[in-house]
Design a protein that fits this description.
The structure is a single chain. The protein is mainly α and about 130 residues long. It has a single domain (about 1-134), classed as VKOR domain (de novo design (two linked rop proteins), Up-down Bundle), CATH 1.20.1440.130. The protein is about 75% helix and about 0% strand. The chain contains 6 helices and no strands. Helix 1 runs antiparallel to helix 6. The radius of gyration is 15 Å and the shape is elongated.
Amino acid sequence: MEHIYLLILSVIGFLVSHYIYYKKNRKEKLVCIIGKDCNKVINSKYSNLFKIAPNEVLGMLYYALVLVVSVLYFFNIPFLYLIQFAYISTIVSGLAALASLILISIQIFILKEYCEYCLVSAGVSILIFLVIIF
């Protein structure tokens, strides 16, 4: 049953991250309800925190990985047993949850501005970690 939750959460996370990516690349303003200006968050110097790729791109990659692995695991594809899915998924989702907590903290304590899309994505990432560890 937990694989169904992971499938749903990964799709939600991917769609939210993709929406941020789409709006940001088209230079269209994100309309936020809880924050005054989501664009201050998504265009801040922290929007590429890990210097690999923009946060929303890393989010899309992470959620796509969770989706693919969940589908494969759901259908009992044998290779997942060989690579010890439980350990790898716990580590990867734990790192993603930690990154999400860092990004939430940056919104609260440094930027003092909120992006509800970013918060939803971070919340989904944390929920994925909780589903995996429980």
